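Entry for the shared binder. Reason: the reviewer on the internal report wants the predicted structure included alongside the sequence.
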Amino acid sequence: MIERRTPPPRKRTLKAGTIVFKSGGGISAVVRNLSDSGALLDVESVIGIPDKFTLFIEANQFKRECDVVWRLPNRIGVRFV
Protein backbone atom coordinates (compact mmCIF):
# COMPACT_ATOMS: atom_id res chain seq x y z
CA MET A 1 0.00 0.00 0.00
CA ILE A 2 1.30 3.48 -0.86
CA GLU A 3 1.56 5.93 2.04
CA ARG A 4 -0.44 9.06 1.13
CA ARG A 5 -0.29 10.92 4.42
CA THR A 6 2.08 13.82 4.81
CA PRO A 7 4.55 13.89 7.71
CA PRO A 8 4.54 13.65 10.68
CA PRO A 9 3.82 9.92 10.76
CA ARG A 10 1.13 8.67 13.12
CA LYS A 11 2.16 7.01 16.37
CA ARG A 12 0.60 3.69 17.31
CA THR A 13 -1.65 3.91 20.32
CA LEU A 14 -4.50 2.06 21.98
CA LYS A 15 -6.80 4.55 23.67
CA ALA A 16 -10.51 4.65 24.37
CA GLY A 17 -12.23 7.49 22.55
CA THR A 18 -15.71 8.82 21.91
CA ILE A 19 -17.11 10.04 18.60
CA VAL A 20 -19.35 12.92 19.64
CA PHE A 21 -22.11 14.00 17.26
CA LYS A 22 -23.24 17.60 16.89
CA SER A 23 -26.74 16.43 17.89
CA GLY A 24 -25.34 15.45 21.30
CA GLY A 25 -25.10 11.67 20.98
CA GLY A 26 -21.94 9.65 20.74
CA ILE A 27 -20.40 6.21 20.25
CA SER A 28 -17.29 4.47 21.53
CA ALA A 29 -14.17 4.10 19.40
CA VAL A 30 -10.66 2.75 19.86
CA VAL A 31 -7.91 5.10 18.70
CA ARG A 32 -5.30 2.90 16.97
CA ASN A 33 -2.91 5.59 15.79
CA LEU A 34 -2.65 9.33 16.22
CA SER A 35 -0.71 12.31 14.89
CA ASP A 36 -1.06 16.09 14.90
CA SER A 37 -3.04 15.85 11.67
CA GLY A 38 -5.33 12.80 12.10
CA ALA A 39 -6.15 9.40 13.54
CA LEU A 40 -7.27 5.85 12.81
CA LEU A 41 -10.36 4.74 14.72
CA ASP A 42 -11.80 1.26 15.23
CA VAL A 43 -15.59 1.29 15.64
CA GLU A 44 -18.35 -1.30 15.95
CA SER A 45 -19.77 -0.15 12.59
CA VAL A 46 -19.38 2.94 10.42
CA ILE A 47 -23.11 3.02 9.70
CA GLY A 48 -24.62 6.23 11.01
CA ILE A 49 -21.31 7.99 11.64
CA PRO A 50 -21.40 11.42 9.94
CA ASP A 51 -18.63 12.87 7.76
CA LYS A 52 -17.84 15.46 10.48
CA PHE A 53 -17.71 14.90 14.25
CA THR A 54 -15.69 15.61 17.40
CA LEU A 55 -13.22 13.03 18.72
CA PHE A 56 -12.79 13.04 22.49
CA ILE A 57 -10.15 11.01 24.35
CA GLU A 58 -10.91 11.32 28.05
CA ALA A 59 -7.57 9.90 29.29
CA ASN A 60 -5.70 13.02 28.22
CA GLN A 61 -8.61 15.46 27.68
CA PHE A 62 -7.93 15.40 23.92
CA LYS A 63 -10.70 16.97 21.82
CA ARG A 64 -10.53 17.62 18.05
CA GLU A 65 -12.97 18.31 15.25
CA CYS A 66 -12.65 15.64 12.53
CA ASP A 67 -13.41 15.13 8.85
CA VAL A 68 -13.71 11.51 7.71
CA VAL A 69 -11.17 10.78 4.95
CA TRP A 70 -11.96 7.10 4.38
CA ARG A 71 -14.12 4.28 5.78
CA LEU A 72 -13.99 0.50 6.04
CA PRO A 73 -16.71 -1.61 7.70
CA ASN A 74 -15.12 -1.17 11.17
CA ARG A 75 -12.47 1.51 10.70
CA ILE A 76 -12.38 5.23 9.97
CA GLY A 77 -9.47 7.43 8.96
CA VAL A 78 -9.93 11.04 10.06
CA ARG A 79 -8.20 14.37 9.49
CA PHE A 80 -8.26 17.00 12.20
CA VAL A 81 -9.65 20.40 11.18
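Summary line for the report: The beta strands are 11-20, 26-34, 38-42, 52-57, 62-72, 75-80.
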